[in-house]
């Protein structure tokens, strides 16, 4: 897909005449105005007298490093987008350039198709920032965001210092192609932050592709990431796109990147460094144009020390880091957050928004909430279900060891049934595989909660820390049927 942009003024800095001419002719054919320089001194003289949209510079020049131009542009607060060209295999140089403020980088030998795509992306970034920062009635950290970008920022609820810093940093990092690593405990909203980066970038009109790296079977990872050609494996009856192809021109969000197996980490590293992928069953590589945003709840630096994560991939993904504070460190956001969650819960249930009393807010503030916002949402779901429609009734969750940080375990105490007795009647008939045992245990817990609430799904869901859709899904998956005469109002929610 060809993306049209307005003609731009571009400076090309390279000491090799043939390459400089090649870049110049390529850009002239695209309709751009081009100036050239073969060293730092000439480039700085041109920058002193001209305004450019994009500066393209080789890393190594006769009188210094192209990085000097980046520092010069940044120190003067100029708006030019910088693209650095590095030698093949100089991954560290590319990372340093991005950290120094480069919009993007290219690796020699430069692929002209990729060259045009990166330049187009940089020009679009300049144009959109110029448009978005025009005088308007908006203020505060959302001033540079478009309508969609502002909505994405608004979903990050809270006025605490740490939330304001996160929003400001999102707007700052959204304007480049530098990879971003979002870290934080489970339930802190890492995907919301990642999407806000996409929504406030020049790639907002491109696709947003979110991938849970821990949810894909290891045998399918390569095909899922890079695609596959017809006949590449049994059952491949037609060509299929992978995540990289699907995210072309947009953002690829790699959630729980720390769960990616080591063999796939090396393949991902090459794809990110070279901007090329090879689908399964194909003899040719494809150029890909995606921005990578990753997220993890793990301490990846420690995972590198333990040998579970590649150090070179960590450095490549962690060019810019965004750390989200846990809810216990921003309790001043709790009232606004509770109100937003209660409003959403009430809308889903087609009921008035319940009133959150000061007493309940104090009680919520005293809880450790290791599951963060996700756990808070589960607590409020239960409080709404157990309340009388106007007031809330807080049902404290089970307390787990501090080592357990997963709000999906947020459920009240039950007398755990024996899954093998409830399903088979005999201890010696316990199934060998773990998944079957877990399914049996989950089924027994669901049945117990449903029976205790006379098959009121809303109340049963609340007891288990689920919402209505989640319990319906589990009942269908585990083949739990309600009594035939059960036509309860909770099914209409």
UniProtKB/TrEMBL annotation:
GO BP: phosphorelay signal transduction system; regulation of DNA-templated transcription
Lineage: superkingdom: Bacteria
An example molecular function term from Gene Ontology annotations: ATP binding
Swiss-Prot/TrEMBL keywords: ATP-binding, Nucleotide-binding, Phosphoprotein, Transcription, Transcription regulation
Domain Response regulatory: 9-123
Every Sigma-54 factor interaction domain range: 156-385
Residues the record lists as 4-aspartylphosphate modifications: 58
UniProt-recorded name of the protein: Sigma-54-dependent Fis family transcriptional regulator
Source organism of this protein record: Rhodoferax fermentans
Lineage start: Bacteria, Pseudomonadati, Pseudomonadota, Betaproteobacteria, Burkholderiales
């Amino acid at each position: 897909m060809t993306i049209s942009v307005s003609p731009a003024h571009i400076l090309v800095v390279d000491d090799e005449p043939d390459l400089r001419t090649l870049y110049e002719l390529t850009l002239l054919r695209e309709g751009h105005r081009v100036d050239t320089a073969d060293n730092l001194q000439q480039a700085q003289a041109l920058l002193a007298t001209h305004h450019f949209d994009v500066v393209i510079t080789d890393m190594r020049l006769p009188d210094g490093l192209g990085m000097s131009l980046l520092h010069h542009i940044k120190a003067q607060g100029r708006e030019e987008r910088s693209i650095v060209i590095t030698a093949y295999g100089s991954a560290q140089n590319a990372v340093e350039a991005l950290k120094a403020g480069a919009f993007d980088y290219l690796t020699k030998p430069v692929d002209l198709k990729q060259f045009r795509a990166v330049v187009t992306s940089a020009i679009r970034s300049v144009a959109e920032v110029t448009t978005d920062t025009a005088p308007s009635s908006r203020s505060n950290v959302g001033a540079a965001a478009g309508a969609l970008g502002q909505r994405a920022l608004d979903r990050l609820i809270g006025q605490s210092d740490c939330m304001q810093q996160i929003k400001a940093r999102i707007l700052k990092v959204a304007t480049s192609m530098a990879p971003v690593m979002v870290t934080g405990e489970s339930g802190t909203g890492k995907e919301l932050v990642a999407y806000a980066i996409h929504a406030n970038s020049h790639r907002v009109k491109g696709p947003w592709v979110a991938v849970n790296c821990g949810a894909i079977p290891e045998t399918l990872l390569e095909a899922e990431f890079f695609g596959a050609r017809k006949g590449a494996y049994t059952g491949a009856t037609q060509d299929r796109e992978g995540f990289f192809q699907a995210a072309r021109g947009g953002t690829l969000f790699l959630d729980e990147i720390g769960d990616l197996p080591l063999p796939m980490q090396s393949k991902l590293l090459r794809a990110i460094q070279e901007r090329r992928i090879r689908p399964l069953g194909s003899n040719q590589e494809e150029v890909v144009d995606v921005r990578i945003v990753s997220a993890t709840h793990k301490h990846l630096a420690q995972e590198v020390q333990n040998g579970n994560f590649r150090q070179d991939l960590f450095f490549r993904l962690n060019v810019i880091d965004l750390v989200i504070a846990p809810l216990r460190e921003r309790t001043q956001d709790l009232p606004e957050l509770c109100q937003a969650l209660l409003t959403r819960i009430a809308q889903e249930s087609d009921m008035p928004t319940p009133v959150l009393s000061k007493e309940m807010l104090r009680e919520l503030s005293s809880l450790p909430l290791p599951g963060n916002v996700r756990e808070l949402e589960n607590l409020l779901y239960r409080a709404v279900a157990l309340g009388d429609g106007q007031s809330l009734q807080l049902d404290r969750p089970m307390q787990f060891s501090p080592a357990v940080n997963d709000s999906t375990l947020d459920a009240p105490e039950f007398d755990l049934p024996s899954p093998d007795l409830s399903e088979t009647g005999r201890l010696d008939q316990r199934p060998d595989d773990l998944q079957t045992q877990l399914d049996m245990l989950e089924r027994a817990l669901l049945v117990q909660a449903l029976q205790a609430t006379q098959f009121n799904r809303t109340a049963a869901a609340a007891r288990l820390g689920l919402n209505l859709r989640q319990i319906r899904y589990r009942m269908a998956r585990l083949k739990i049927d309600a009594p035939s005469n059960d036509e309860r109002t909770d099914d209409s929610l």
